[in-house]
Amino acid sequence: MKLITAIIKPFKLEEVRTALTDLGLQGMTVTEVKGYGRQKGHTEIYRGAEYAVSFLPKIKMEIVVPSAQVDKALEAIQRAAKTGQIGDGKIFVSPIEHTVRIRTGEADDNAL
Amino acid sequence: MKFNGLIRTAASSAATAALYLWTSLPSFAQDAAPAAAPPTPTLDTGDTAWMLTSTALVLMMTIPGLALFYGGMVRKKNVLAVLMQCFATTCLVTVLWMVVAYSLAFTTNANEAWQPYIGGLDKLLLAGMGKDALTLTIPESVFMTFQMTFAIITPALIVGSIVDRMKFSALLLFMGLWLLIVYAPICHWVWGGGFLANAGVLDFAGGTVVHINAGIAGLVACLMLGRRTGYRTENMAPFNLVLTVIGASLLWVGWFGFNAGSAVAANGSAGMAMAVTQIATATAALAWMFSEWLVHGKPSVLGIASGAVAGLVAITPASGFVDPKGALVIGAAAGVGCYIAATGLKRLLGYDDSLDVFGVHAVGGVIGALLTGVFAVEAIGGKTGLLEGNFAQVPIQAYGVLATIVWCAVATFSILLVLKLIVGIRVTESAEVEGLDLALHGETVQ
Question: For the domain that residue A79 is a member of, what is the CATH number?
Answer without folding.
Answer: 3.30.70.120
